[in-house]
Amino acid sequence: MITVKKTHKILFLAESSNNLNLMAESFAHEMANGDIEIISATMKPPILNPIAVRVMNEVDLDIAKLKQLTLLDIELFMFDLVITLGDFDPSCRPTLPGMPPHLHWDLPDPLPVEDSIETYNALKSARNILKSNIQTLFHSGLLNALFVTRRNLELVLDNLHDGVMAHTTNRRIFYFNKAAATITGYPRDKVMGQDCHEVFPGRLCGGDCEFCESTISLGKANVNRRDATFMRPDGEDRVLKMSVMPLTDTDGRDVGALVSFQDNTELHQLKMRLKHHHSLEGLVGKDPKTLTFFEHIREVSSVCVPVLIEGESGTGKELVANAIHNLGPRADKPFIAVNCGALPEGVLESELFGHVKGAFTGAIADRKGRFELADQGTIFLDEIDGLSTLMQIKLLRVIQEQRFERVGGEKSIQVDVRIISSTNQNLKQLMARKTFRRDLFYRLCVVPITIPPLRERRLDIPILVDHFLEMISKELKRPVLTPSNDVIDLLIRYSWPGNVRELRNAIEYIYVKCRDNLIRFHHLPPEILNFEESRKTRPGPSLKFKKEEVMLALARAEGNKKNAARILDVGRATFYRYLDHYGLK
Fold first, then answer.
1. How many CB atoms lie within 10 A of CB 281?
2. 10 Å Cβ neighbour count for 163?
3. Which of 144, 146, 344, 540 sits in a 20 to 30 Å window from 319, CA-based?
4. Rounded to whole angstroms, how far apart are CA atoms 464 and 34?
């Protein structure tokens, strides 16, 4: 049996003006001998009832000396036991999550009438019942039993590895478990009863939660998850993964919040190291093919020669061009991008080389072109295959001589520009059809860099998904969503005709559809779901071998598909159908 300590608090709560709460507090002070903190309050504005004073004076107790409080002066959550008294409206009884044990004593509680013998007799009867009940409470072991039950519940939470904190709607902390104290570095006795925004410098939530404003609107049954950076008292920064959920009463009204958190600092640091290892100037990936063209970018960035970036639409050619520029000696100079395929020839010439005032209708002033703006820096010519034959000739002259004239001008302008171009077409085929000049090709393609399509570097998909989930969550100011394993498997199997751009669009679509934390199939764009349905209906091999067995055979064959088929004792065509069926092709 536990020993009742000074830290335990009991609240006597009455609704009427008969001072039943003060009567109970007075008896409790006398019987507790200072071992327990006794407080009483009323639901209505406090009034000292002279009949109640006279009834208590008869037993040598003076309730007039006691401080009168209302619910506005206390926090119900801060007590270890709440006892309601008299004719107490059941709808007002505290039955909130996290509340301490609650007892109700049904006592005579008449409408107060001054100098009424009926009121006197009723309060005298209430006095005798209160004395008897409080004697039983303190001397029968019931109080200890209630405190033991409450302590056992606290022990369960104290043995969790996660920190757990609970506070009221005005942010007064009424629970703080052992792990919370360990993670934050703040002892429990320093935070209990405090405003969580005041006790933690910089705020435990990072200053971004539903309780940061005066108006509380958590919303029913919402669970908000977020990462927050928290500074411990020793000055050490920790990254906390937090979940905040509302506490509601029996009528569904918000009455507080339950906050659980983990110390994810080491995991966060590991992710940052991995992200640095698997990223290059905004490009993200870990597939061997991706790491190969990362190395090509590093090699070519240091030498200012023309680079031709080849890749399907949506693979991130402009990001590659930016990376080459930023890693090179011209990083502090301008990077100017022009989409050659999006502009008509007349407009494009003015965009590239500029024009003088009066060169054409609307040319009301001299204007610098992109080549001039990119002087000492880099110009990126996207969709170079879209240039007309005439523009190809003019561009060739600029590359050869590093000089040009503005449209309508006669003055020759000298520039020093590094040229990076890109195409999603096969320029050699265009040269064979005489639509792209061979001499221009060799001027542009001193160093070619080919970006593999996303379907050929599927190991990049999970890390790209994480990258875009984090990026878009910051843009939308929403918690980072978590994809289920089945969703990741489907995203890896999908063919991604729009490549990385399509993947980003898919993640944006998911943020529109997914209103909780976990991404499921029905949150995915229709084209991905339709792909999965069509894949299921396509005839495939009989599932004699599981996916793991096929992968093991590939590993034993060191990636040689012919040898892997021999290991499984199936034909090569059948083995390729397995690869397609399991998304391994």
1. 17
2. 23
3. 344
4. 64
Q: Are 287 and 459 in contact, with CB atoms under 8 Å apart?
A: yes
Q: Going by C-beta distance under 8 Å and a sequence separation of 6 or more, which residues neighbour residue 379? A: 336, 337, 338, 370, 371, 417, 418, 419, 420
pLDDT band (50, 70, 90) for residue 543: low
Q: Which of 394, 264, 262 is nearest to 340 (CA)?
A: 394
Q: Which of 207, 178, 172, 55 is nearest to 120 (CA)?
A: 55
From the number of C-beta atoms within 10 Å of its C-beta (0-12, 13-18, 19+), residue 30 rates as middle
| CA dist., res. 360 & res. 356, Å (int) | 9
Percent with pLDDT over 90 in the chain: 42
Q: What is the pLDDT of residue 428?
A: 93
Strand 447-450 relative to strand 335-339: parallel, antiparallel, unpaired? unpaired
User: Cβ distance 285 to 460 under 8 Å?
Assistant: yes
pLDDT in tens, 555-573: 888 888 888 888 887 877 7
pLDDT band at 537 (very low <50, low <70, confident <90, very high): low
**Chain Cα centroid distance, residue 177:** 24
Instruction: Say how far residue 91 (Cα) sits from the centre of its chain.
Output: 38
Confidence of residue 383 (pLDDT cuts 50, 70, 90): very high
b/e string for 395-404 if b means 16 or more Cβ within 10 A? Answer: bbebeeeeeb
5: pLDDT strictly greater than 50 = no
Which amino acid makes up residue 442?
Y
3-state helix, strand, coil in the chain (%, to 5): 45, 20, 40
Sign of the alpha-carbon dihedral angle for 154, 158, 162, 167: positive
Look at residue 405 in the predicted model and tell me its pLDDT.
92
pLDDT digits (tens, 9 = 90+) for 410-430: 899 999 999 999 999 999 999
Report helix, strand or coil for 103. Answer: strand
Q: Could you please report the per-residue DSSP string of 57-94?
A: HTTT--GGGSPP-BGGG--GGG-SEEEEESS--GGGS-
Question: Strand locations in 180-300, DSSP E?
Answer: 224-231, 237-248, 254-263, 279-280, 283-284
**CA angle, corner 157, sides to 81 and 253, nearest 5?**
60
Beta-bridge partners for 309: 422, 449
Q: Does residue 265 or residue 309 have the better pLDDT?
A: 309
Beta strands in 161-200 (DSSP E): 163-168, 173-176
| Joined tokens for residue 520 | 């499921």
Q: Are 298 and 272 in contact (CB under 8 A)?
A: no
Q: Which pTM does this prediction carry?
A: 0.54
Nearest to 568 by CA among 549, 547, 583: 549
Identify whether the C-beta of residue 360 lies closer than 8 Å to the C-beta of residue 315.
no
How does residue 4 score in pLDDT terms, banded at 50, 70 and 90? Answer: very low
Cβ-contact 268, 227 below 8 angstroms: yes
Tokens representing residue 144 in the block: 């200890």
What's the chain's Rg over C-alpha atoms?
37
pLDDT higher at 250 or 364: 364
Q: Which H/E stretch holds residue 297?
A: helix 288-301
